[in-house]
């Protein structure tokens, strides 16, 4: 009888630990906001790209202030969550965006918050913002000005997206400023390179 009670107790602890783990958010310890590296030396295979759109602007003219250094994607290079990628659109235009979900993962958005495999993506690029401002700070600032579409912006900050599952060769990207940018699935073969930072 003691063994049954002990086994049941261990089972409860294991279930509790498993439940706790399943609720823990996904974090990104390596990617930081508003901290774009400055590259002093580039190798022959790297190239310079001047981005002219504010889809990645977090309030400091991010990624459009100076020319960017792009490192081409080579076989065997691991694409990570948080990477800013360089790619060609279906219209053969050049663009950049940020990887938020990886192959095989499930992604959804609930009221402006990204969830990966039902876990909250707890990082600066995991939720809707406007020019780097979170929802509460944005409305606090704009209410003082009293000249904006309040209802429209509340809909924006409460963006929802049904869950989708990525294939083994698919990633999900979201521009840093959702309002000025886009989000979607991209095949690994369509990723041309990575944004390393600004050219010195």
Automatic annotation (TrEMBL):
<feature type="domain" description="Peptidase S26">
    <location>
        <begin position="76"/>
        <end position="177"/>
    </location>
</feature>
<dbReference type="InterPro" id="IPR019533">
    <property type="entry name" value="Peptidase_S26"/>
</dbReference>
<protein>
    <recommendedName>
        <fullName>Peptidase S26 domain-containing protein</fullName>
    </recommendedName>
</protein>
<dbReference type="InterPro" id="IPR036286">
    <property type="entry name" value="LexA/Signal_pep-like_sf"/>
</dbReference>
<dbReference type="GO" id="GO:0004252">
    <property type="term" value="F:serine-type endopeptidase activity"/>
</dbReference>
<dbReference type="Pfam" id="PF10502">
    <property type="entry name" value="Peptidase_S26"/>
</dbReference>
<dbReference type="GO" id="GO:0006465">
    <property type="term" value="P:signal peptide processing"/>
</dbReference>
């Amino acid at each position: 009888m003691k063994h049954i009670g002990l086994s049941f107790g261990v089972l409860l602890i294991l279930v509790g630990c498993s439940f706790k783990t399943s609720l823990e958010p996904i974090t990104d310890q390596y990617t930081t906001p508003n901290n774009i590296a400055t590259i002093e030396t580039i190798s022959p295979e790297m190239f310079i790209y001047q981005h002219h759109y504010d889809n990645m602007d977090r309030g400091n003219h991010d990624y459009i202030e100076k020319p960017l250094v792009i490192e081409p994607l080579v076989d065997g290079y691991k694409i990570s969550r948080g990477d800013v990628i360089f790619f060609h659109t279906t219209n053969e235009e050049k663009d950049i965006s940020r990887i938020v979900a990886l192959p095989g993962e499930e992604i959804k958005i609930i009221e402006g918050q990204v969830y990966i495999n039902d876990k909250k993506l707890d990082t600066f690029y995991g939720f809707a913002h406007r020019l780097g401002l979170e929802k509460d700070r944005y409305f606090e600032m704009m209410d003082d000005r009293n000249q904006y579409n309040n209802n429209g912006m509340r809909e924006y900050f409460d963006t929802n997206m049904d869950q989708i599952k990525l294939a083994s060769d698919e990633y999900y990207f979201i521009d840093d400023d959702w309002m000025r940018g886009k989000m979607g699935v991209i095949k690994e073969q369509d990723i041309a390179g990575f944004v390393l930072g600004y050219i010195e």
